[in-house]
Design a protein that fits this description.
18 strands, 19% strand, alpha+beta
């Protein structure tokens, strides 16, 4: 067997996986012996990906990392698949998912409006400060706007709010190069997404642009911030989720992601989770990776009336908290994860955290 063939073989990947797991186990011992502070990461590979100039487009590699692409490359959604379509259901991400740090070239900016060419969504660039709104007042505020020549502004859904996050910014998740607002006065933002519950008569999700926390508000009189949106896809495939070959995977026909249907049975460390996905052979493919935070969050189905809040095609273990590949900007000793009970983005320590794993691959 030549070198290239061996490098592509399962035995080679298994050897690498074994070495990575052993290295993860050795980290704690090395820190103790050398007296290295817990906040100092030992592995550069634990990062979400290399940085790039904000005016250079980025692309997602097969291993889930963020890379710079050629000058002038534009973000273009792939051509829609042929087949029956239905009106868009805005609880889903109906667009290709951007890298952890969307490049500035993804946006068209004016003084008042931000248009995201990846999602097709236009946003109010400036928040109303210092005002907060009840839900009804927020709806009226957005509906009454006339910006950019449009009057069809509305409150965004949970997944639409999350589409604006930049996971590489320390201490917050929204870019002040894209959105012009006072970061010192941010509170939770309203979304139009309802958390279906057999007991609650009214509920809406809210999103925290600092922590990524997704909370549930049970009173329409609660005071939250309002950021308005318009546009986005108007149609979607009639079959949003589809089983892959042999029923071993689930395909998201909008994001073009193919997901492991049944998660790995045990909770693992972050490094072990990455190794598990990189060595996975499933449904005739071996190019799986640990999903990014944005990709993992796209699986949440807030319309489910009970946990786990994910489509019924997905098998779930008793664990509802899953690793993503995205490492926090600060501290870099933690990675983002998604809790499919609360529908929230959370974070866990790279070394001590033990979470569930569901792998993903990107369709060509």
């Amino acid at each position: 067997m030549d070198v290239l063939a061996f490098a592509r073989s399962r035995s080679a990947r298994t050897s690498v996986t074994t070495a990575l797991i052993a290295l993860a186990s050795a980290q704690a011992g090395c820190r103790a012996i050398l007296g290295i502070d817990e906040d100092v990461p030992l592995l550069a590979a634990d990062r979400d990906g290399p940085s790039a100039s904000p005016d250079v487009p980025l692309e997602r590699g097969g291993d889930g990392e963020t890379r710079a692409s050629g000058p002038g490359d534009a973000w273009r959604p792939p051509a829609a698949e042929p087949g029956p379509v239905v009106p868009a259901d805005r609880r889903y991400a109906l667009w290709p998912l951007a890298p952890s740090s969307p490049p500035l070239t993804q946006y068209d900016l004016t003084d008042d409006v931000v248009t995201d060419r990846m999602t097709g969504l236009s946003w109010t660039r400036k928040d109303v400060l210092p005002a907060t709104f009840t839900y009804a007042a927020a709806e009226a505020h957005c509906a009454g706007l006339s910006l950019g020549g449009f009057g069809d502004w509305r409150i965004p859904t949970r997944i639409e709010q999350l589409s604006t996050f930049d996971f590489t910014i320390p201490f917050r998740l929204v870019s002040t190069e894209v959105f012009a607002f006072d970061v010192e006065n941010l509170v939770m933002w309203w979304t139009s997404s309802e958390r279906v519950s057999p007991t609650a008569t009214w509920s809406r999700y809210t999103v925290d642009p600092f922590s990524g926390n997704v909370s549930v508000v049970l009173s329409p009189g609660s005071q939250q911030r309002a950021r308005c949106v318009r546009g986005g896809p108007t149609e979607m495939a009639a079959e949003h989720w589809a089983l892959g070959p042999g029923g071993e995977t689930v395909i998201d026909r909008a994001t073009k992601l193919e997901w492991q249907r049944t998660p790995s049975p045990a909770r693992t460390s972050h490094l072990q989770a990455k190794a598990i996905c990189e060595s996975l052979e499933l449904a005739g493919h071996d190019d799986y990776t640990l999903p990014t935070a944005r990709e993992l969050a796209s699986l949440v189905d807030e319309a489910r009336s009970a946990a786990p809040r994910v489509d019924a095609l997905f098998a779930m273990s008793s664990h509802t908290r899953f690793w993503s590949a995205t490492v926090r900007a600060n501290p870099a000793t933690a990675a983002w994860s998604v809790d499919f009970d609360s529908a929230s983005l959370v974070n866990d320590e790279l070394e001590s955290g033990r979470l569930a794993v569901r792998c993903v691959r990107r369709l060509p």
